[in-house]
Specification:
Radius of gyration: 24 Å
Shape: globular
Distance between the termini: 67 Å
Number of strands: 20
Strand order of the largest sheet: 3-2-4-5-7-6
Oligomer: single chain
CATH class of the largest domain: Alpha Beta
């Protein structure tokens, strides 16, 4: 720890990040934080230069998801910050610890609408847990320490710190601050006993898991706990990797396109234990699975932030605690009971039935693509995606086997999959990373394929290419049938784009060609793009363009 040594602000900042355990930052360079870039020069912190600030911020968010520690991004003022706001929004809605550092105009130019000046407190206020501007260099370590505590405490989320250019370039003698110390997050023994009592006396219990503050140990404890009490477990939206999908107590995802049998089971439950999920719109099928404000089911809600408990649904029991800690407490305290099996086994059979592929139009079918991925990918492969109807096949048919093998935005942000894949491959270079994207989703961030190539992040991108914004086209057909508007796309040759970077690229037009193309991509030793030419009629696992029922 450095103390009473004159350093410029950029060095003080980078030294503070090193003490917090930061190993990697994502950035787009800017003149507003040159001193911080100088501090990073020989710091030992890996500095990844993205192609656009939104990509850098999403990479940082994905890194935070993977590690449970704040992902860090640096962007310049004005346009840099506005571009990065997309990643901050993902971190906020996904409860991901993240810190965004934004260069700011010099302090003597504030409030003049100087070049690229923005009031970041006003701009990021609704998108972040805390936003501040560091006006005094001697307080910079204090602000960084507070940022790391806020980002990781309670409901995790993003913090934004604005750094005036003259503050960063000034010099000072200031003591560093040790790493953040976080609360244990454990629940009271009485709360654990109350949860167990409710579950043990329930006739139709159900568990919903999701949110932040989980870990591999917590995922293991979840499986042990569910098996001990013979409980059916459903994953909240895009949290399907919280329990091995092969586990007999896993019964599916409570999200978009929910299995109707699973939705009925949630509605008919007499006790719901919700561990870590917010029970937002996506997880409750538009707030229809539970009555508002008092659910028919007895709701036992474990969440790490009091502001969320009772926000929409009045719980029967609310426990403000870390769900990853609570599940370990529950697993240790539970007394195994003989498996009654009937309800849980039926729920599992419903899930298995829902996994049976439904045939969709075209020579190349997404259900067969996902089935093949299930068959050939290792258990620790990481799959990423952004937003779009193409993801419905992944969520319905892929079986996640390990904790943190799914990286997807609960915020519904298009363009997330590729930056997330780059971050995942850099974090775990020995694991396979597959990004699924739609043609529209990919083109929002396709410049980040260059980032993958620059840093040897050998991700494989599968582009579901149907020549349109499929989700919006689906809604148009339902609401304004036969009147498509603003949803057609003219796409480049995505395989040629990959080859222009010196990477692997191939176009796939049939089920028979996919297996060979994927094998070649996996063996290429470079990043890869497979351009999957899918039928525009196949809009979802259940609907074709011809069969979408109009609104009445």
């Amino acid at each position: 720890m450095k103390d009473n040594t004159s350093r410029h602000g950029g060095q003080i900042l980078v030294d503070a990040l090193s003490l917090q355990g930061v190993e990697r930052v994502f950035c787009i360079p800017g003149e507003s934080y040159l001193a911080a870039l100088d501090g990073l020069y020989d710091s030992g912190i890996d500095t990844i230069v993205a192609r656009q600030e939104g990509g850098a911020a999403m990479m940082a968010e994905a890194d935070g998801k993977l590690t449970g520690r704040p992902g860090v991004a640096f962007v310049t003022r004005g346009p840099g910050a506005t571009n990065a706001s997309a990643g901050v929004h993902v971190a906020f809605q996904d409860s991901t610890p993240m810190i965004l550092f934004v260069g700011q105009v010099a302090s003597d130019q504030r409030d003049r609408e100087a070049f690229q000046e923005v009031d970041y407190r006003a701009m990021f206020g609704p998108l972040a847990k805390w936003v501040a501007e560091v006006d005094r260099l001697d307080r910079l370590p204090e602000y960084v320490s507070h940022a790391f505590h806020v980002a990781q405490s309670g409901r995790p989320g993003p913090v934004v710190l604005a750094l005036p250019e003259d503050m960063l370039s000034a010099r000072a003698e200031v003591a560093d601050v040790p790493p953040a110390v976080l609360p244990s997050g454990a629940a009271a023994e009485s709360d654990i006993a109350a949860i167990l009592s409710r579950l043990e006396s329930a006739e139709r219990p159900f568990v919903i898991v999701g949110g932040g503050r989980w870990s591999p140990d917590a995922a293991q404890a979840l499986g042990d706990f569910a098996a001990a009490l013979d409980l059916p477990v459903g994953a909240s939206f895009r949290c399907q990797d919280f329990l091995d999908n092969r586990h007999p107590n896993y019964v599916g995802d409570v999200g978009i396109g929910i299995n109707p049998a699973l939705a009925a089971r949630v509605r008919e439950a007499d006790v719901i234990l919700c561990l870590g999920a917010r029970l937002g719109e996506m997880t409750t099928s538009g707030y229809t699975l539970l009555d508002i404000p008092v659910p028919r089911q007895a709701l036992l809600h474990v969440y790490p932030d009091t502001s969320e408990l009772g926000r929409v649904y009045r719980p029967t029991l609310s426990v403000c605690a870390n769900p990853g800690v609570v599940i370990r407490q529950l697993a240790e305290a539970a007394t195994p009971k003989p498996a009654a099996g009937t309800a849980r086994a039926e729920a599992r059979r419903d899930y298995e039935s829902w996994q049976t592929p439904v045939e969709t139009p075209g020579r190349l079918k997404m259900e067969n693509v996902i089935t093949h991925l299930n068959e050939v990918l290792p258990d620790d492969a990481i799959l990423t995606n952004g937003a779009g109807n193409y993801a419905a096949w992944l969520h319905r048919y892929y079986r996640y086997r390990n904790w943190r093998t799914q990286l997807a935005p609960t915020s519904g942000s298009m363009g997330y999959g590729l930056p997330a894949a780059v971050a995942a491959k850099l974090r775990y270079p020995g694991r396979e990373v597959i990004c699924l994207a739609g043609d529209g989703c990919f083109q929002m961030v396709m410049q980040e394929f260059g980032t993958a190539c620059q840093y040897g992040a050998n991700v494989i991108v599968l582009i579901s290419n149907n020549g349109m914004y499929g989700t919006i086209r689906m809604h148009q057909q339902r609401t304004y049938p036969g009147r498509p508007s603003g949803t057609a796309m003219v796409n480049p040759d995505f395989a040629m784009l990959a080859r222009s970077y010196g990477a692997f690229g191939a176009t796939v037009e049939s089920d028979e060609a996919f297996a060979g193309a994927l094998a070649a991509a996996r063996a290429a030793g470079t990043p890869a793009i497979l351009d999957l030419k899918v039928d525009p009629m196949a809009l979802s696992p259940k609907l074709t363009l011809e069969t979408i029922p109009p609104d009445r």
